[in-house]
Amino acid sequence: xxxxxxxxxxxxxxxxxxxxxxxxxxxxxxxxDPGEGATSAATVYYQGSPxxxxxxxxxxxxxxxCAAGSSENYYTDNDLDNYYNYYFKISDSTGSYAIxxxxxxxxxxxxxxxxxxxxxxxCHVTHSASGGYLLVQPTGVALCxxxxxxxxxxxxxxxxxxxxxxxxxxxxxxxxGPLASSGQPVEIVVYEAYSSLSTEPxxxxxxxxxxxxTFISGAPGGIxxxxxxxxxxxxxxxxxxxxxxxxxxxxxxxxYDVSVNIDFQAYARTDPDLTGGYGEDIYxxxxxxxxxxxxxxxxxxxxxxxxxxxxxxxxxxLAISAQSTNKFxxxxxxxxxxxxxxxxxxxxxxxxxxxxxxxxxTCHQAHGTFKTGENxxxxxxxxxxxxxxxxxxxxxxx
Length: 398
Ligand code: HEC
Ligand code: HEC
Ligand code: HEC
Ligand code: HEC
Ligand code: HEC
Ligand code: HEC
Known about the structure:
single chain; alpha+beta; 2 domains; globular; disordered N terminus
């Protein structure tokens, strides 16, 4: 094998291959040129083995062909409606493909750095930084919420809103609330170093959130030993990545020696009709459970766990924590069938295997919820998508 590789390397150095060999299509980024009216232009830049085909989609499932047999390394689309999400898929002669998203009229600051390196300055400054890693704000959360308060991004994570053409609608992620260290309900704790400095108004008070600043080792049903406060960048990669939905991290470090690889595939279809109750319908494809269970591994239990109890080794192979030993749990990654009865549900399901299955995000939101009805035992609304027990009725209809 080694010899083969050496021969191959020698062949490349000697120029025996005239056409450069790419591992596959690589997208360098997207540049948006905001128009005067309600539309913008987007240019996608890529590399690979020509000829290329370019496809476009609003939801990651239905693709229309924009170009075929093209030898160019870019494609310009002049007519994108502002405040709609677009996905571009580029495939090359080897059959390999890559997908990227465009958010007209905004340029996504989390990537496309090869095309526009000035984007670094949105977050870093060289000699007068307020925070570690030369950040322009004292902390990560403060940095993220200078834009994600709705001022420099269409996503306002504190109110849990996304901007549509001329309105705002709820996000699938849900609201974080003011992210202030004081003045929040008692269930919501945000440590000072994880506060937002935004002065934009917040009208939504969530009833539970992923409390920022809480030690990650305190995640219920988890085995993490990370004594670091939970922040945006523990779930999202600030520099973006080309592989996961919402720039979710590709690797989550659980303990000093255990890391979990994340391959979370989904698409966000802009939906001004609010069909699913949100401004964007999320098409969860695969991998979302592994993301949540990196920190909450005990809860990734397979079919039957409500009847026979939690298994001692959790998906993806981590040991169960003491608090969950001998407990019974609601199964995930299971189709909507119980004792021969097929359920229907308006809650979001994951569809990647061709069978719709229950995942954590079927019942929970990722950031927070404003729904009501605390659990008497846990004292929390647990980031649920509906008022207390509403989610249960959505499937079991007792
Ligand atoms: C959206 C904000 C944002 C943008 C844009 C951004 N960064 Fe960062 N960067 C961060 C944050 C936040 C951290 C801290 C990460 C951490 O604590 O793990 C960071 C950390 C870093 C680090 C140190 C840790 C690491 O990941 O290697 C380097 C180097 C870096 N950034 C370089 C760059 C360069 C170069 C650019 C432009 C090409 C850039 N960043 C653009 C937010 C950003
Ligand atoms: C300089 C402004 C700015 C900062 C700072 C910033 N963002 Fe963004 N972010 C954007 C823009 C612009 C988009 C593209 C979507 C839009 O608003 O149109 C975006 C998109 C996103 C998305 C959705 C990406 C996708 O592919 O669907 C996530 C998640 C995100 N940002 C998280 C963060 C996190 C976490 C931080 C802090 C490390 C951060 N952002 C800091 C401007 C910013
Ligand atoms: C515990 C992990 C976690 C933390 C912490 C977190 N996010 Fe997210 N975020 C997610 C997930 C998962 C999604 C996708 C949710 C969905 O589509 O159902 C998401 C979605 C988003 C989106 C897309 C809009 C939406 O809400 O659906 C933005 C923007 C974003 N996050 C920014 C942030 C910022 C800024 C912070 C810090 C203030 C943050 N996130 C903290 C996991 C997290
Ligand atoms: C990086 C680690 C991390 C990831 C990834 C993560 N969580 Fe958490 N989660 C935590 C921590 C830490 C807490 C405890 C802090 C708190 O209670 O707010 C927590 C608490 C919770 C709670 C309890 C909140 C309450 O009010 O009782 C729920 C529910 C939850 N997470 C669901 C999820 C879901 C669903 C996902 C996947 C979208 C997820 N978590 C991904 C770290 C994580
Ligand atoms: C069928 C709906 C449903 C699914 C699926 C689900 N949860 Fe929950 N979860 C709940 C409810 C409801 C609560 C609140 C406690 C209660 O009422 O029993 C909760 C509570 C939690 C809590 C807070 C601690 C606790 O036990 O009360 C965490 C953390 C959590 N869930 C994480 C997850 C993760 C991670 C997944 C996926 C592996 C998941 N949940 C799947 C409904 C669900
Ligand atoms: C998205 C649909 C869905 C939702 C929402 C849902 N369930 Fe289930 N439930 C199922 C399915 C499917 C099964 C069968 C799981 C299996 O194969 O083990 C199940 C199994 C159960 C069981 C039987 C466990 C056993 O095997 O003995 C109980 C009890 C239960 N659910 C209660 C709840 C409660 C309480 C809630 C609300 C917190 C809830 N479910 C929400 C789909 C759902």
